[in-house]
Design a protein that fits this description.
There is one protein chain. With 232 residues, the chain is α/β, with parallel strands linked by helices. The protein has a single domain, classed as Bira Bifunctional Protein, Domain 2 (BirA Bifunctional Protein, domain 2), CATH 3.30.930.10. Helix content is 25%, strand content 29%. The strands form two sheets. Strands 1, 2, 6, 7, 8, 9, 10 and 11 form an eight-stranded mixed β-sheet that branches. Helix 3 packs across helix 4. The chain is globular. The protein starts with a strand and ends with a strand.
């Protein structure tokens, strides 16, 4: 299936969230899938099932309640965000399979970089030597997904100390920069692309920023609606 890859740079979380929701609401059976790669300014996000007690010392970092699955997470510059706007029915994959293939794509990339990534029972995501390097949280609406994947490239890890990452007290995090990888988020996104297309059965191509997304970046975020969600 064709998919458009869009590199969006540094974008505010709330505006990007509104863009994903608008794209998902407006798409139809003929709309090509899209994968957006970007970074966010510093922000804590709390999933629909998120518990405030997992936020300990947020300081001045904004906290945004969002409509993905999962608990609390941190996003900031130097963290690669991969938003997967996919028609799962058309692709013939389940939400569970989507999460597994996103995880496996990161594991494949780590292997290319000379690192061994794996999963961890009871605390989904991708890990290197027991430390979390990638987190996932997706939302399914009318058979289509949005939200997606976050990979720590050279993000400041300090803000993770103010939370229980993904709701797991004491969970340690790491980043590619501390594992000998000198690529920035844009280069990591480029390296990840073929694994995503292969694992998800997609045919990827670069594309300009979508008009619907650009319009949404100037639109305040709307309140989330209740649908299925799968968090990591």
């Amino acid at each position: 299936m064709p998919v458009n890859f869009r590199e969006l740079g540094l974008q505010p979380y709330a505006f990007t969230h509104a863009a994903m929701k608008r794209f998902t609401e407006e798409r139809d059976d003929a709309t090509p899938d899209e994968i957006w790669t970007l970074e966010h300014p510093s922000v804590y996000t709390l999933g629909l099932a998120g518990r405030p007690e997992y936020l300990h010392e947020p300081g001045s970092i904004p906290i945004i309640k969002t409509d993905r699955g999962g608990q609390v997470s941190y996003h900031g510059p130097g963290q690669l965000i991969v938003y997967t706007l996919l028609d799962l029915r058309r692709l013939g994959i389940t939400p569970r399979s989507l999460v597994q293939q996103l995880e496996q794509s990161v594991i494949d990339l780590l292997g290319e970089l000379g690192l061994e990534g794996d999963r961890r029972a009871g605390a989904p995501g991708v890990y290197v030597d027991g430390r979390k390097i990638a987190a996932l949280g997706v939302r399914i609406r009318r058979g289509c997904s949005y939200h997606g994947l976050a990979v720590n490239v050279d993000v400041d890890l300090g803000p993770f100390a103010g939370i229980d990452p993904c709701g797991y007290p004491g969970l340690q995090v790491t980043r590619l920069a501390d594992l000998g990888v000198t690529l920035d988020s844009t280069r990591v996104a480029e390296a990840l692309r073929p694994y995503l297309t292969s694992r998800l059965g997609l045919d990827g191509q670069a594309a300009e920023a979508p008009r619907r997304a650009a319009r949404s970046f100037a639109t305040p975020s709307q309140a989330p609606q209740q649908d299925s969600m799968h968090g990591r």
